[in-house]
Amino acid sequence: MAGRLVLALPVLLFLVLVGHCRGGKIGVCYGRNADDLPAPDKVAQLIQQQSIKYVRIYDTNIDVIKSFANTGVELMVGVPNSDLLAFSQYQSNVDTWLKNSVLPYYPATMITYITVGAEVTESPVNVSAFVVPAMRNVHTALKKAGLHKKITISSTHSLGILSRSFPPSAGSFNSSYAYFLKPMLEFLVEKQAPFMVDLYPYYAYQNSPSNVSLNYALFSPQSQDVIDPNTGLVYTNMFDAQVDSIFFALMALNFKTLKIMVTESGWPNKGAAKETGATPDNAQTYNTNLIRHVVNDSGTPAKPGEEIDVYIFSLFNENRKPGIESERNWGLYFPDQSSIYSLDWTGRGNVDVMTGANITSANGTWCIASANASETDLQNALNWACGPGNVDCSAIQPSQPCYQPDTLASHASYAFNSYYQQNGANVVACDFGGAGVRTTKDPSYDTCVYLAAGSKMSTMNSTSLSARSGSSPHPSAKCFSSLMFTLSVLISAVML
Predict the structure, then answer these.
(1) What separation in angstroms does the CA of 267 have from each of 57, 112, 199, 204, 273?
(2) Which of 62, 77, 237, 367 is the most core-located residue (most Cβ within 10 A)?
(3) Coil, strand or helix: which one is 21?
(4) What is the C-alpha separation between 46 and 57, in angstroms, rounded?
(5) 132, 171 Cβ separation under 8 angstroms
(6) What is the pLDDT of residue 363?
(7) Mind listing the GO biological process terms from this record (predicted)?
(8) How far apart are CA 138 and CA 389, in angstroms?
């Protein structure tokens, strides 16, 4: 009996840790403010064909909910702002809603989140005081049904909930929202729910192009870094800066443990004449880079390596939305379900999203390992290039063309150059913390061909590489390996 208990403790701890072993999730927002969209069952088929696993809708439309039954897609449903008053006043209103709109379709339809209100601080009618009472009533209704631990409750917000967002470390909530914000944050902590926010670097660029460059908004490697003067943290893109401004605002109120979930982000594919940034190319660039950022668990400067879940807005253009031209043109697909532009949902494709073409080098330059770099620096840089850097390192596996010579410098040179060419042969892309150096001499040899001007890169479906080759496996594999190590340490400690 004692032996069983000895082994049970680390196993239980391991199972707890497994719950945290996952990468960031990418979902899509399915808005329906249009009169030309395909039927919900056709939309569900499209989403399955694209292997999209997470979908957000803005209400509990029965036809939509039914269409996702038995699809394996996890659904985020919403309580509209117009229902907040009724939901906050009477528990019976919420009980009836749950009985009619959720329970008959669950769990065949995998409803995992309920958003109670959406961007209430932006609403023309002030309904913010009703949010927390409505959230509590929804929780009570779920608890009666035994679903309070299976369906998570939160509410979405715009970046406008902050009074200041730059620099990120100075992020702070608007004090006029304190009356409902603090109770809501306490509710989220109590229920272990995320703080949901809609982030749009597009608007930061569109509203202030002299201060926010297009490259910075699009995650482009050509963008100029922005340094937070208070923390020294370096920001290479606007998305990270916006996420961290929320994090610092939460931290200032002592809610630093709250997870942040981005429930909307995207880029318009078309706009009015003055909206020069609203193009299909820019939309493809932003969303492609965003997906890669999330899938690779890049995290943010303030919380590096931390996974973040993001929902891309939006599945279709919505022709009935009011406002300027771009408001109706955030879609990924036309009503006939054809793509407005190509998008790789896996985050591991290798399209030059700045041009839509295969990636090539420029001016006959290559990037190789510096002879002055230490082995530790080379190995760390190699691991990064083959992992978060998204380089296809299959050529430096055993028996592959660039495996020999089997030296760290040789393998690192191949990976460094691939990353360098992948990012437009930009000088910065050959830095690797001083471990890389540019050369005008082609480092190719025998059958090992280094990418150069005019050469085409293969699709990056990275296979499993040996540690010697500087492989960096998929985040879930890295997490599992870490957990196995943790488990072995726990067992050893208990056995002692």
Answers:
(1) 18, 26, 10, 12, 16
(2) 367
(3) coil
(4) 15
(5) no
(6) 52
(7) defense response
(8) 43
pLDDT digits (tens, 9 = 90+) for 333-365: 999 999 999 888 888 654 443 333 333 334 578
Catalytic residue among 74, 122, 264, 375: 264
Cβ-based neighbour number of residue 442 at 10 Å: 12
- The Cα 421–Cα 358 span in angstroms is 11
Within 13 Å, how many C-alpha atoms sit on residue 193's CB side?
27
Which residue matches tokens 């669950």? 106
CA distance 198 to 313: 9
Q: Which three-class secondary structure state does DSSP give residue 366?
A: strand
Of 193, 198, 114, the closest CA to residue 156 belongs to: 198
How is residue 428 annotated by DSSP?
Answer: G
CA distances from 160 to 2, 174, 383, 489 (A): 57, 8, 39, 46
Q: What are 162-187's pLDDT values in tens digits? A: 999 999 999 999 999 999 999 999 99
C-alpha–C-alpha distance, residues 358 and 271, integer Å: 27
pLDDT tens digits for range 97-122: 999 999 999 999 999 999 999 999 99
Q: How far is CA 372 from the centre of its chain?
A: 36
Residue range 265-300, pLDDT digits in tens: 999 999 999 999 999 999 999 999 999 999 988 899
Paired with 195 in beta bridges are 260
- Whether residue 493 has pLDDT greater than 60: no
- How many CB atoms within 10 Å of residue 127? 20
* Residue 280, token pair as written in the block: 């299909």
Q: What is the pTM of this model?
A: 0.71
Q: Which two tokens stand for residue 236?
A: 């290479």
Say how many residues make up the chain: 496
Which strand (E) or helix (H) includes residue 74? Answer: strand 74-79
Known catalytic residue at 264? yes
Contact 382, 411 (CB under 8 A): yes
Distance of CA 174 to CAs 115, 202, 397, Å? 21, 22, 53
Distance between CA atoms of 129 and 125, rounded to whole angstroms? 11
- pLDDT at 251 > cutoff 60: yes
- Residue 307 falls in the annotated catalytic set: no
- Report the C-alpha gap between 36 and 24 in whole angstroms: 32
The runs of H, that is alpha helices, within 58-200 are 62-67, 84-89, 91-101, 131-144, 178-191
Catalytic residue among 74, 119, 186, 306: 119
